[in-house]
Write a structure and sequence with these properties.
This protein is mainly alpha-helical and about 550 residues long. The chain has four domains: about 170 residues, HUPs (Rossmann fold, 3-Layer(aba) Sandwich), CATH 3.40.50; about 80 residues, Glutamyl-tRNA Synthetase, domain 2 (Orthogonal Bundle); about 60 residues, no CATH class; about 100 residues, Orthogonal Bundle (Arc Repressor Mutant, subunit A). About 45% of the residues lie in helices and about 10% in strands. The strands form seven sheets. It has a three-stranded antiparallel β-sheet with strand order 5-6-9. It is elongated and about 115 Å long. The N and C termini lie far apart (about 100 Å).
Length: about 550
């Protein structure tokens, strides 16, 4: 008679190590808290993934722990080529520095790897073999057709769906019966199912670091642990990986909350301590007045690339995420203006359990505040880095005219009248593009018209006079007085109170608008006289006369 240990040897003949052997290879860490971010390479980095990784990273850092990156690629049918590198690159852009994990497709750092699940197959087999030998897992060859039949029968009779108890036709077979079937039928590896208690009425109580004490139905299903391709499901893989990587705390989305009973059963089956679980509520948005989860199919902002391309600063986006994670952060920040979110000690217990609402207005305000505090050199360097990725033409101009660009960016910044006009890196284009002579012909095509009541000959006469006599020296008031003085010669009122229809051709404001249009080809620009000073006398003169 075949024993279960012999069955395990026959199913996993290549496995020679035990769980204890592996635990000795990956000893306990000295760090207090060890967390991980474990995305699947089935899509780009989702905003929810960024949120989850940030929470774990921040919690690890403030507890003098470690944060790991692990790529969960066992569902290879859904894997998208290049997605792993996209995930790694996106996280690096945000400055979320992992202590261990892949640095690229070819390189990783850390002593508890490999950190890509498809490279850890032999480790999963050790744990799977142990379960078979203990009678806690069994091979199963139920066809998809048979599984569908059972599901339909359960639905029709209003029974709890799943593969458990007598619904598993392989659960109670002896090792000899299993071997007989294995030898008689196809030799491919069958799926491996966990042998649960099968009691659909049993409840379990556990503690979640965010949600507190939770009571729910215990797992009763004989869940698949090893698929037909020999790779594990998430349920087994994360048990093995978190155990061997010595993870103490798991932050993940609330969609995994219902799996906790199964996962606790598995830890118990291996006689291993379970980590702390923290289940984060999803990021939500209002859609026609109704709250829903951020959708990767409906919402472009679900892809973090959206924020890069739009021109948000990664540091500002992380600060915004801090406000979503802990509502007390904003009050703290107002009281500690000289510090950043990196200094803030957030609490898992204060996290939103109903799903924080995404707020673009708040995000833009935070981004505007971040860019406004940068020195002009920093704004130039960060803006140039953005442009190199998303606006090559602008990047070439910024590099070609570096000092000229910095002077243009610096207009009115960090003054009492600072308009804080840069909310996004992409705002750099509309604020400085007109400074470049290379863009003159293109932008002039859409320049606004002058006030139509003023004849072109009047504009030409004023332009010729002003172009010869304007000054870039002195205070703004001096230069404005000069504008009024020259304009008076051509019938322009010095102010609105003085202006009367029929007595004047226009007001001094019309003159300022004329200069804006000639110099910047727009009605709304940075401070006019500051623009002129940056452009320099010859460029200003040439543009004024270009009628």
């Amino acid at each position: 008679m075949t024993t279960r240990a012999e069955l395990a040897d026959l199913l996993f003949p290549q496995v020679k190590e035990s769980i204890d052997d592996l635990l000795a290879k990956y000893p306990p860490r000295p760090e207090g808290k060890v967390l991980r971010f474990a995305p699947s390479p089935t899509w780009y980095l989702h905003f929810g993934g960024l949120y989850t990784s940030f929470v774990g990273w921040k919690y690890a850092k403030q507890n003098e722990g470690k944060m790991l990156l692990r790529i969960e690629d066992t569902d290879q049918k859904r894997e998208i080529e290049g997605a792993t590198q996209l995930l790694i690159t996106a996280l690096q852009k945000f400055g979320i520095q992992f202590d261990e994990g892949p640095l690229s497709l070819e390189q990783e750092v850390g002593n508890y790897g490999p950190y890509v699940q498809s490279q850890r197959k032999s480790l999963y087999e050790v744990f799977a073999k142990h379960l078979v030998a203990q009678g806690l897992a069994y091979p199963c060859r139920m066809s998809e057709e048979r599984l569908n039949e059972i599901r339909e029968m359960q639905t029709a009779s209003k029974q709890i769906p799943g593969i458990y108890g007598n619904y598993s036709e392989w659960r109670n077979k002896t090792p000899d019966e299993l071997l007989e079937k294995f030898n008689a039928e196809d030799q491919t590896f069958p799926v491996l199912r966990f042998r649960s208690h099968g009691d659909t009425t049993k409840k379990i109580v556990f503690q979640d670091l965010i949600r507190g004490k939770i009571s729910m139905i215990d797992n009763y299903n004989d869940i698949v642990l090893i698929k037909g391709d020999g790779l594990p499901t998430y349920h087994l893989a994360h048990i093995v990986d978190d155990t061997l990587m010595r993870v103490t705390t798991i932050t993940r989305g609330e969609e995994w909350l219902t799996s906790v009973p199964l996962h606790l059963q598995l830890f118990e089956a291996f006689n291993l301590p379970a980590p702390e679980y923290c289940h984060l509520a999803p990021i939500c948005k209002l859609d026609e007045g109704k709250k829903r989860k951020l959708s990767k199919r409906k919402d472009p902002e679900a892809n973090v690339e959206f924020f890069f391309e739009a021109g948000y600063a990664p540091q500002a986006l992380l600060e915004y995420i801090m406000t979503l994670a802990d509502s007390s952060y904003e009050d703290w920040q107002r009281a500690h203006e000289d510090q950043t979110f990196l200094d803030f000690q957030f609490s898992l217990e204060k996290m939103n359990v109903s799903g924080a609402l995404f707020d673009f207005v708040k995000l833009q305000n935070i981004n505007n505040g971040y860019l406004s505090k940068l020195s002009t050199v920093e704004l130039y360097e960060q803006g140039l880095a953005w442009a190199k990725d998303y606006h090559q033409e602008l990047a070439e101009l910024m590099e070609k005219y570096a000092e000229y660009t910095k002077a243009a960016l610096n207009i009115e910044r960090h003054t009492e009248k600072d308009p804080k006009r840069f909310t996004l890196y992409s705002d750099i284009e509309k604020n400085i593009l007109f400074f470049y002579d290379e863009k003159r012909t293109e932008i002039k095509k859409s320049k606004p018209d002058f006030p139509e009541q003023i004849p072109l000959e009047t504009w030409k006469a004023f332009a010729a006079d002003y172009a010869e006599n304007f000054s870039l020296d002195g205070e703004v008031t001096d230069r404005f007085d000069q504008l009024k003085l020259i304009g008076k010669k051509y019938g322009f009122a010095a102010n609105n109170a003085e202006f009367k229809e029929g007595s004047f051709v226009g007001k001094v404001g019309d003159l300022a608008m004329f200069l804006r249009i000639q110099l910047c080809w727009a009605k709304q620009t940075p401070d006019l006289f500051s623009v002129m000073k940056v452009m320099g006398r010859e460029r200003v003169k040439e543009r004024i006369l270009d009628l």
